[in-house]
Amino acid sequence: MKIKVILFFFLIISQISNKVYGQLFETFLEHYTVDNGLSQSTVLCIFQDSRGFLWVGTQDGLNKFDGYRFQLYKYNPLDSNSISSNWINAMAEDNDGNMWIATQNGLNKIERKSGQIKRYLHDPNNPYSIVEDEIFGVVIDLKGNVWTKTASSLNKLSVETGQFSHSEHVSDYFSSAKSDKGFPMVIDEIGIWIGSPFGLIFYNFEYEHFKSYVSNASDPNTISDNFVTDLIKTKDGSLWVSTKNGFNKFNTKTKKFKRYYPVPTDLTHQSNSISSMFLSYDNNLWLGTSGGGLLKFNPTDEKKSSYKTFKNEPFNNNSLGYDYILSLCEDNSHNLWIGTDGKGLDKLDLKPKNFYLYRGTTGDEGIRLSSNVIGSLLLLNDSILMIGTWENGIDVLNRNTGKTFNVSDNGPSGKRIMGNNVHSLIMDSRGLVWIGTRNGISIYDPKTNLFTDVFEKFKFNFVPNLNKLRIYNLFEDDHKNIWVSTKNGIFRFEPDKNTITPFWSNFMDLNSLSNNSGIYTMQDSDGYVWVGTANGLNRYDYNTNKFIRIGEKTTGKNNIKEDSTGKIKFYSISSTYIYSILEDFQDGSIWIGTGTGLNNYNKKDGTFVYYTEKDGIPNDMIYEIIQDRKGNIWFSTNRGIGMLDKTSNTIRSFDVGDGLQGLEFNNGASYISKKGEIFFGGSNGVTFFYPDSLKDNPFIPNIVISSLVKTNNDGKFEMNVEGLDVIELSYNDQNIIINFSALEYTKPSKNKYTYLMKNLNDNWVPIGNRNFQEFSNLPPGEYEFLVKGSNNDLVWNEEGASLKIIVHPPWYQTLWAYLAYLLTVVTIIYIFISSRTRKLKQANQVLRMKQLAAIEIAKQKEELTVKNKNITDSINYAKRIQEAMLPSEFLLRKLLPQSFILYKPKDIVSGDFYWISEHDGRIYVAAVDCTGHGVPGAFMSIIGYDLLRSIIKEQKISKPSEILNLLDLGISETFSKNVNQTSVKDGMDISMIVIDRNHHIIEYAGAFNPLLIIRDNKIIEINGNRFSIGRTDDNDQKYDNHVFQYKSGDMAYIFTDGYADQFGGPLGKKMKQRRFRHLILTISGLALNKQREFLDENIANWKGELEQVDDILIIGVMLE
């Protein structure tokens, strides 16, 4: 059957008369212009030094390129360390790595380590200076001598003497005619080959002689043209010589030239004007022309067909930037650099291509694809590839001849398909090709060589309407059933039974399909059918005829799991829109392509691992997934192709620069052959490759630390640190940025880096493709910055580069400062100890004096203690006398059963006292407050008590006012000595009542202290006179007598001022009379003993922690 298929397609393709060939790879050139930092667009010369830097000479400056930025060298008349001219003709490097630059105005030497520039200019007063300033070429001989070419001579700068010597030549050999980019020079063991406008010149070291080789039209063994533009010396000693009309191979032994013309039929053709040459690593000779573009010539095949032309294509940004080329250079990793005459610098990767492509072309040669927008792929055998396109049907490609045949919806009967948008192609186990379009399904049957509608081929019991319905995916399971994924459900075609089973979503049935838009279907090794929809992943079980929805969205911590290795896993899929599904043949896990990254589903624990752009995949939109024979996972995206190496868990990405058809790929367009060849289709053709044949770039790049940018209070400054081992910084340099490069130019954006800053961090820190590292506020100290880098294929330079960084502290943290601090501290300690010693001596002296004084004080204290004890004993004795003098509570209870006394002296003895006595049926009660308290008050109380006793008991005075008058007289007489002395201002305040219980009369007289009568819960206040006993000098002042008719049950209160004057309460203020009177009114209804207890507790609470300020005396009597 396979033979019939092949014969059929070959029969079809053989009917095509056009001669076509397969385009196997895309030529991709990168461009660098002034927009990328190049100083000027006319590139006169290119050179790569021994470190790996690329030097680019232009008409307006010299550029040093590290793959990321151009460092510019330009002439500055105010800076003697600048180059002498901006027009750069040639460059060379000596054995010490110093660069020699030939310019229009002098020779320049750029020191490798210091970066300093030394100029060599003609000095008319120095015969050992260079003879002329316009330098056309420069080379270095084996001894290190520097040779330069000027218009009239060849100059040698001796490495030993530092002086120039000159070899002049006759004017016939050189003329005033100038090249656009100087004259080429090549050195060998015996001399120097020099290109000129008048032939090839050789200078012999031994004989110091010039010999010229010029063109002779009648002699084909001479040079093709006299204007020599470039020279290349080969390993066999031959010399390639390019001219403005053809190029030549010169046999240095036979002295014969062999001429080559890229267009021999037209010697005036632009392709014959060769401006530059380069012999690449693979022995191809690259020719830059003046208008004819770039040519690749295979010297082993001298036929015309051995020339391959690269020219500018106006609508192809990946083509040559300009057809006028001035310079060529191949770098260490086999990139060809192309200097153009006004359009900047181009780069072409010469390494073997890993990726190949099929793309339709419009020229005379190339593949005739009907469309470059690819929707599906199917390899029928090694030779025949079916390519489903968008809008143009199927292109059947013979991969051996490059011929194609198109099948569309407008072909004749049996030779047309249902629609031109072909999204899925499969060959089933019966040998039939199923073709899914946007308008139904077609079947190609190799037995009949016919294309038919699926419903004409099979007589199914149920015919779904597939018109204008996109067929996203076709898949055959191990039951030989075909699963059809559409926008309106999934259909299972069973050709052997002629039945179709539809599957739709039912929101009432959780075991139905999650969404009607079916995108992708596949079957795993356990027999389950996996269906990806526009809203969820489903697994179908033939045994139960039910779907299980996998990885539905959950939120919160329950959605996350961390395994033993620290890997984060999720219980839901990253996105419910499923583009592709693949079972891993190694571990049985399921790979799912979504719009938010690549997902891996573990069947055992039901978890997902996400791979996103943060993990290094080229793009989160995953269209197609393929697993190669080694188990690596390949996937197409919107930004190229990604590959996950499961063994190393590393991700690599590939883009247009690697040879892909473009960045954007399409869903459904993938295929892997039985031999392991992988195909991906996108919006600009088909990319195909063998994963096992992919070759990594083996070049190990040199790592350089190029500059350091520091920021301090004065601004931002960049310092060149190339060649430096150590750099010193100040503590004021708050921020530094270290720039470094892996000098590998294939894809600098894919070069990777990792760094270590010793004394700051202990581990290597991977930073991806970032070629700088920033540090802020480094503490003073010594550090070592180490960096390692890789090329675009992760081939690492493990040696890397390093830079020692010393951050100097502020002056107050330097060694000298610390020594000064130490000296200061020692001095302070010495002064302190000396002072302390002196003070201790003085203190000891004082202590001895104090000890003597203490002995004296102790003696006096003992005497005072004795005296104090005697005084205290006396006071206590006085207290006993005073207590004995006062009426007893028994007498009070006897005379006034319904009464109480609250008596609280402030000190041991009191200045307050009370008086109670009875005479002639009348009861005398007094509450007296003598001036002061303590001992003075006690003495006054004794005097007062004795006077009252005399007045009442001996003189028989019964009227309260008269008693007070006589008491006042007695106090005054007691403290008066003679008429000439001022009387003592001591006295007493008193309330005195006389109770006549027979007539219910109470008489009262008072000095300041009032009488309070409580009747019917109201206060009746009777005030005494406002002058104290014994304190008046006016003998005419008399105390008033008050008579009051009381009722049984009335309460009478007399008191001193100690209670009301006590400080306390929340604010620490006096209680005062108003609050005291209110208190008396409040308690007047209580039993007499309760009243006393309440008053006692209340004054204690009121006083709190404060000291008692005065003696307290309150007498309460219920009148009967």
Could you characterize what this model shows?
The protein has five domains: 330 residues, YVTN repeat-like/Quinoprotein amine dehydrogenase (Methylamine Dehydrogenase, Chain H, 7 Propeller), CATH 2.130.10.10; 320 residues, YVTN repeat-like/Quinoprotein amine dehydrogenase (Methylamine Dehydrogenase, Chain H, 7 Propeller); 111 residues, Immunoglobulin-like (Sandwich); 67 residues; 233 residues, Phosphatase 2c, domain 1, CATH 3.60.40. A five-stranded mixed β-sheet has the order 61-67-66-63-64, with no helix packed on it. The protein contains eight helices and 79 strands. The N terminus is likely disordered. It is mainly beta and 1120 residues long. Helix 5 packs across helix 6.
Which terms would index this structure?
79 strands; mainly beta; disordered N terminus; Methylamine Dehydrogenase, Chain H; elongated; 1120 residues
